[in-house]
TrEMBL record:
Membrane-crossing residue ranges in chain numbering: 9-34, 69-89, 101-120, 132-154, 190-214, 234-254
One Pfam family in the UniProt entry: BPD_transp_1
Organism listed in the record: Amycolatopsis oliviviridis
InterPro entries: Bact_Polyamine_Transport, MetI-like, MetI-like_sf
Domain annotation ABC transmembrane type-1: ranges: 65-255
Name the UniProt record assigns to this protein: Spermidine/putrescine ABC transporter permease
Gene3D superfamilies per record: MetI-like
Subcellular location(s) per record: Cell membrane
């Protein structure tokens, strides 16, 4: 399809406008993390690294960062195991209710976070009698992190087909050997991409975390929310927000590159 020059310019202008709406506020946050003016006057008259130094020494932010990393890594580990097993079960086998099970696996990421948070809070406290803490937050994060791992693995299994695995079995390899030498190498990049996306999703989550983390603990997003309107903490909040931007962008970028690797069979 050939487009006129006017149409191309209009499409380019719409693209630039859309990207500006999304990324200009993020750029402002990054610049304000170096802004020497505590009132964040715009444009910045001078820049400083003081806020980064103070953020590196802020005990509350560091503790919140540690909690976020622990929750993200644990939730990602659970999601990798359960999401991969679910993907194999639904892709490799045909059984009654298969489509309904697939819907149930994907549903948690589509539900409003506040609904998921309230439901899990009630389940932990009322039904199971578990006190809210880091463990309950990890379980809560895993419920939606499983979805991104499941989607990545299912997509890779569909592209792989079953010919190579069948050939391996025909040549005398058992199921474990076939998985180790044939299936897993081709799934490796999909698993890594799903793990990176799951970690980024867990690291940024705030609504479900609010209902399942309990008192006395904060993740980094919750720490930002609690300190956002405190004047003496505002510069440090900008630094932490800038770190969050970078921490979210890198895993998503790597996951996009890895999940788009179709020519090498997922080889890293």
């Amino acid at each position: 399809m050939r487009l006129s020059r006017t149409t191309k310019y209009l499409l380019l202008a719409a693209l630039v406008l859309g990207l500006a709406v999304i990324y200009f506020p993020l750029l402002v946050v990054l610049l304000n993390s170096f802004n020497a003016d505590t009132t964040f006057g715009w444009p910045p008259s001078s820049f400083t690294l003081e806020w980064w130094e103070r953020a590196a020494e802020n005990e509350g932010a560091l503790n919140a960062l540690g909690t976020s990393v622990q929750a993200g890594l644990a939730a990602t580990a659970i999601a990798l195991v359960l999401g991969t097993m679910a993907a194999f079960a639904l892709q490799k086998y045909r059984f009654f209710g298969r489509n309904q099970v697939s819907l149930l696996i994907i549903l948690p990421i589509a539900l409003p976070g506040i609904v998921t948070g309230i439901a899990l809070n009630n389940a932990f406290r009322t039904i199971l009698g578990i006190d809210l803490g880091l463990f309950t937050a990890i379980v809560a994060h895993a419920t939606f992190c499983i979805v991104v791992v499941f989607n990545n693995v299912v997509a890779r299994l569909r592209r792989m087909g079953g010919n190579l695995e069948e050939a391996s079995m025909d040549l005398g390899a058992d199921g474990l050997t076939t998985f180790r030498l044939v299936t897993f190498p081709m799934l490796r990049s999909a698993l890594l991409a799903g793990g990176l996306l799951a970690f980024a999703l867990s690291f940024d989550e705030i609504i479900v975390t609010t209902f399942t983390l309990g008192t006395g603990l904060e993740t980094l997003p919750i720490w930002i929310l609690n300190n956002l309107f405190r004047p003496n903490q505002a510069p440090i909040v900008n630094v932490v927000a800038a770190v969050l931007i970078l921490a979210s962008t890198v895993p998503v970028y790597l996951a996009q590159r890895l999940s788009g690797d179709t020519t090498s069979g997922g080889r890293l």
